Amino acid sequence: MGPLAGYRGRAQRSIAIGVVAVSVLGLSAAGAAAAAKTASTQAHAAAKTATSILHTTVPAKGKYLLIVWVRSRGKHSRLVEVYLPGQKARSVVANPWWGAAVYYTLNLSPTKLAVRTVNAPPAVAVRATLTLRKAAAPSTPPAATTTSGGPPPASTTTSSGGSTSTTTTTPVITTPPPNTVDTSAYTKNVFTDDFQTDYTGQANQLPNPQYWGLDNWGGCGGGTLSQSNTNQGTGANVDGINPDQNAYLTSNGLAITAVRTASGNYVSAQIDSAGHNVSNQYGEVEASIEMPAAQGLCPGFWMLGDSNLGASSSPGEIDVVEAPTFGGGLGSPAYFDLHGVNTTQVYSTSTSAVNLSSGFHTYAIIWTPTSIIWTIDGVQYASASQAALTVGASWANDFDTSNFHLILDLAVGGWPCDAGPCGPQSAPAASYTMYVQWVKWLQIP
Known about the structure:
The longest helix is centred in the N-terminal third of the chain and has 15 residues, at 29-43. By secondary structure, the chain is mainly beta. The protein has two domains: 15-136 and 152-160, no CATH class; 177-443, Jelly Rolls. Strands 10, 12, 13, 14, 15, 18, 23, 24, 25 and 27 form a ten-stranded mixed beta sheet that branches. Strands 11, 16, 17, 19, 20, 21, 22 and 26 form an eight-stranded antiparallel beta sheet that branches. The radius of gyration is 22 Å and the shape is globular. It has helices spanning 29-43, 195-198, 395-399, 423-426; strands at 15-25, 50-58, 62-71, 77-83, 90-94, 100-108, 111-119, 125-135, 155-160, 188-194, 213-214, 226-228, 247-250, 253-260, 266-268, 270-272, 279-280, 283-290, 297-305, 317-322, 334-339, 345-351, 361-367, 371-376, 379-385, 404-412, 431-443.
């Protein structure tokens, strides 16, 4: 099993002190600019500081829920002060892999929203979600219409990971976009594992060891309630649960199951193709997956580079799909992310257009030397290239130099629980399962 797999779940204990300043730029641009300048000047009084900025737009007048997630980009957790004009400052601990969140209910008019972070290096990564909860009453009666209903409240998600700002806008989509991707060029099958075909009817049958191993990293950031189960060739188990109770074949395909133990903890699994003859570069990588529906879960299908990036202790990372099921009724969006040097998040966007737990969906990337396209059931929902990365990130260095291997996992708890109470914590079930019918890797002949 590759020792590099599972960076999302490593526990970090040391805490560095930093500051996050969040500014809303409204009608009084001069006043907001002065406040931002003051906050920046005070923060930079420290001997060494790092700054990240992201921007998004408030689309309409109304009452909004603003959620700001902060993640430490280094190996250590960070004590972060979050500031918003007119609001009391709040202190949070930003763990690696989106370990902290703060919430604001704001009455806003159409304006620009800026999130600024100032902290001890390296710069923290920030994700802000702005959701319209109640639109302001119109000043004039709306025009008559022959249709009923309408689009859901606008929602935007932005992310930042460097000293210069970057923005990713994620509207709530009511119908899938029409841009179905032509994948006819990718016809050479370099790898397929059909878990349904592999299943022989044997109880507790592990996935094919020729392609997959059990990985003992796993997790989903601070607050993760589950531990990945692996025997690592020793025959050991975690909390009385055998590894083949967490990753086993069924007639529905591979089941990755988080099991609640007698002690109240969860034991789950992460399977990894590192060192098992499944790693490559470019092409279409896809899997048919049925995501679990309970709140507070963190299933994913992702890839890690086989080699560390230059001047870094980590490989590049491509998240084909992350599907955290948030607490607080915020839904289950599909996230598409890229991570570069030192696991820095260099691209992130999401969509809520697909009901991920409605059954099996095909999640895929189309990876070329200069771009990655993300699709669900053949429909494109995101794309990235050098121009989409945060300033300072290098596509050529991060995603064009190494073979990548495959990872499938399910964690309980972690950063999805930052958004509110989670089902596994408040109403725990005996188990939660993610099913995978098959995984494929196609390339150009």
